[in-house]
Amino acid sequence: MWRWVVMGVLVAAAIVGWLYWDQQRGEPLVVSGFVEADQVRVGSRVGGRVAEVKVVEGRRLKAGEPLFSVEPFDLQEQLKQAQADLAAVRAEYDRLKSGFRKEEIEQARAKRDRAKSVLDKLIAGPRPEEIAIAEEDVKRAEASLRLAKVEYDRLADLREKGQAAAIEYEQSVRQHSVTQAEVGAARQRLALLKAGTRKEEIAEVQAALAEAEQALNLMENGYRSEDVAKAAAQVAAAEARVAAIQVRLADLVVTAPEDCIVEAIDLQPGELLAPNAPAVSLLDMSHLWVRAYVPASRLGEVTVGRQVPIRADAFPDKRFRGRITFIAQEAEFTPRNVQTPEERSKLVFRIKVALEEGLDQLRVGMIADVLLGEASEP
Prior knowledge:
This protein has 378 residues and is α+β, with helices and mostly antiparallel strands. The strands form two sheets. It has a six-stranded antiparallel barrel with strand order 1-8-12-10-9-13.
């Protein structure tokens, strides 16, 4: 009899203990939230009149697919002008870098040699043969003068006697004057040859020779490195202008930055779009997460990195694997406008659970439960 009493007491104690344990452990932690995704708002850095809208809301896109395009206005003309300017400065850079042509250098060398020959000739002065020829010219002119003097004296004597014609006398006077002038000129030429070249002439030709030599050195050495560097900088600047316009032309067609879904678009062809103004809202479906809130009293059961199953209302019989990636450092109240001491039991911490499965099935805005009570260690 006493054995049955002992057994009844033990069974009763076990039932009481289990009820106490069950009350103490509480319900498995489950929090609800919404499936969310990164929102990307894109637009054109150029702006202008909308030419064509290529997508509609809800459409799935691959990275690089066009969303809409903007009219180029005068960008094509700007590009042509920039390319022409680039061609001009590049040609100038090539000319400076290559230096002078061989024909130009040879021409400068010929000018230098000619100036040197002239200088050598002036420094050397007249040759002895030239002086001898000038002396003979003087002698010949003096002989002609003596002959003309004899003829002049003869006709002058006859004229006094009335035996010479007037015309013959006048011819002898002119011939005498001419031969006198020729003698003077011959003597001057001889004096110039004996005196040699004037110092001023030599100095003038020396300056011309120096100038020709410097011009030759300039051509042989090529253009200054500073001029070449300046031309190279101008080429780089012109290339940058062309590249900038090409980037602006590329921005006329706005494309999807990644695989996504068009969430909202409010554009029509012909509308004016401001530069850098968001025009299309996209959702990045490659990265989904659930935003939920954990009561402060249960925060100790949540750890970043833990894997947790997620249940969505749309798929009640399926579980999707997720991972806790974020726990807020600051608590907040739910709702936010209730902050009285009586409502402190509603103090919560925001968490973020990244979905590792179901990206092709779950949709943004779906209600989902995060089964934190079934979390596993990372």
